[in-house]
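Predict the 3D structure for this chain.
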Amino acid sequence: MYIPIILGSVRRDRRSLRVARFVRSLLEGRNGLETELLDLAEFDFPVMVERLRLRDDPPAGLQQFADAIAKGDAVLVVTPEYNGGYPGALKNALDYLLPEFRRKAVGIVTVSAGGFGGVNCLAQLRTVFLSMSAVPVPARFPVSRVQNAFEEDGTPEDPKYAERADEFIDEVLWFGEALRDRRARDG
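Done. Predicted structure below.
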């Protein structure tokens, strides 16, 4: 299975990068899984004026980003909650795409500096992905007080994060595999 990870923040000194590194290391530690981190800060997409499929002049990196999503058996998103919602850079990147997410499992990892772990962001992103014909998995992995929860390299301060994350990833893999098999059967 191939599962790309979208890092949904471009902010300086973003702590969600630590969580994305952690999630990536867990995926890399599983047999039969391939992953990569799609860091929106590295892509730096301009504001979307037209979906990718309708452009003959896509911004640099957009086709690579879209191809990774389209190839994915499932997609993971790691994103902070900003002002009760999700980052504009993430919405912008998602708006470029549509068919790439069709009937694809999406696992959402939310991060916040406060004590609720980004639940507002999670609820909003689930609605967005449903509108894109993607399937947000019911399992969730919220990270509260991220500034104290992970080291720079992605090592969690509390070992229970690994247990919680493994359960979350198991669900993403279950939905990803089921939907992948059904997409293959339907052609």
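The domain at 2-186 is CATH 3.40.50.360 (Rossmann fold).
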